Amino acid sequence: MTSAFASLALGTLLTLSAAVPLRAQAPENWPQVKCERWRSAYDEALKRFGRKGLGQEFIAGNEAFIASGCQNPPDVCPRSAEELNFANVMVMAGMNAGVSSTFMPYACRKS
């Protein structure tokens, strides 16, 4: 009787495992989804923290990144303490939204 039960349990397990994907599938247009999540996080961060201490170049760089469909290479360099704090908030929000660290628009290049 136990071998019949074991066979039934194994069969059920195999059937269930075949019906459930082993890993989550990325949405069909994952780059667009990531950009929408980034834009949403950016808008929310601006609402919560405001623009005080954020330079025009920093704002313009973030908005250009979003306008490009988040395809521009990383070239937004936080220069003030407020910009660095904002960038840190965005990186955390991006990671929480499932956006990888290589997606972020922030980079400070040596001259």
Q: What level of helicity do the residues show? A: 55-70%
Termini separation comes to: 76 Å
- Secondary structure: number of strands: 0
Multimer state: single chain
Largest sheet: none
The overall pLDDT average reads: 84
Structural category is mainly alpha
Taking all Cα atoms into account, the compactness measure Rg is 22 Å
- The number of distinct helices, counting runs of at least 4 residues, comes to 4
Low-confidence stretches: 16-22
* Helix-strand sequence: HHHH
Strand residue content = under 5%
What overall geometry do the principal axes of the alpha carbons give? Answer: globular
Short structural summary:
By secondary structure, this protein is mostly helical. It has helices at residues 2-19, 30-49, 56-67, 81-96. Mean pLDDT is 84; it is low at 16-22.
Detailed description of the structure:
- The protein has 111 residues and is mainly α.
- The protein has a domain of 75 residues.
- It is 59% helix and 0% strand.
- It contains four helices and no strands.
- The protein is globular, with a radius of gyration of 22 Å.
- About 6% of the residues have low confidence.
Task: Note the main attributes of this structure.
4 helices; globular; mainly alpha
